[in-house]
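Aim 2 progress update. The chain analyzed this quarter is reproduced below.
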Amino acid sequence: MFEIDRNSDNTISIFATDVDPAVREGSIAAKSRSYAIATQQIFNTAIVPQPSGVYNAELVKQLTPEMQAKIQNNGTPISSP
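Predicted structure tokens:
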């Protein structure tokens, strides 16, 4: 499940619930997982999975000025992360 929230600091948060790292080799999910692992190695971060191997994740992304202008009148921003 994915949820996208607009934050009050001109970022968006993309929440992924129940991320399961067990994916079929060669799939888009497997490629995505390899990118995530590479990013963790580059930035020296770690995700500690739950005993089931499933975890929740949040990606915070700065919006471009163009995107900020497009969505400024849509909905209500939530508090910043």
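The two ends are 19 Å apart (CA to CA). Residues 2-71 form one domain. These observations will guide the mutagenesis experiments scheduled for the next reporting period.
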